[in-house]
Amino acid sequence: MTDPRILTVRPEPDQYAWTFGGAQPMARIAPGTVLDLYTEDCFAGRVRSEKDLVSEVCEFPYLNPQTGPFHIEGAEPGDTVAVHFVSIEPARDWAASTTVPLFGALTSTHTTATLQPPLPERVWIWQLDRARRTALFEARDSDIRVELPLDPMHGTVGVAPANLEVRSALVPDAHGGNMDTPEMRAGVTCYLGVNVEGALLSLGDGHARQGEGETCGVAVECAMNTVVIVDLLKGVTTPWPRLESDTHIISTGSARPLEDAFRISQLDLVQWLVRDYGFSELDAYQFATQTVESPLANVCDTNYTCVAKLRKEWLPARETYRGVHARLRETARALRR
């Protein structure tokens, strides 16, 4: 086995992408390339203290910078890009979270319009202990302090959309994007359907941790040092972003209203069972109904995202995605040695 090519990317401030689609690739890579990446936080590193209000230090729509895009050689519509997360590590000893006016699940928004004023804008700075793997919550209005475990993830992973579309990096949809699911952690392989030549893969929006649903709209946002292995599956389609871990297969769906995001993720899981595990459609529908776990990813973004996950130990012994997850996992282990 030959050693994989490793490409290290540390973008300059003017090199980030702010959209999926419409951005020129920063590099061309061959399938099997290992990307050693730095990603900036969703505020582009501008929220550094409790005094740095998003409305004052950030310029909309320049939020959620992405490292990329990467043109994957040979990728064409109808193929699937596999992105295996080898490691996701906070790049700083602090992270930031905020409330943002007219944004979040428990406040008035531009689309859920009411007479009540927006919630106050406030910043929480979280101290990260990378050696002890903890994130410290410090209340603003009391002396409450709670150490929580780090659970690093990427809120945003995606490729260029279909049909010449250019989508803000704040939006999740069939191309991936800002799904904000805590399932996107180290050890997981993400499958993304290719819509344009080269796929144009980007990622960013690192979270030191996040609860399911990302209720206030902002996680524990931090810059990340992330290593991924990128591979290509020719002739394999993926209608919505899917994930595979050592224990689960996971479908996603992004839409509004929330019920439609739920339906998309559940239908995609049923169709995955039919295609790769030998179920008929109705058998898959019945089996998924009784076995699925359905965490929320986000209920605050332009589209909401739901997840449908199923334990692999309950599935027939069949190969999915040509066994790429197991193969990339072994490559990841070799890289860590």
TrEMBL record:
Source organism superkingdom: Bacteria
Gene3D superfamilies assigned: Acetamidase/Formamidase-like domains
Organism of this sequence: Streptomyces rubradiris (Streptomyces achromogenes subsp. rubradiris)
UniProt protein name: Amidase
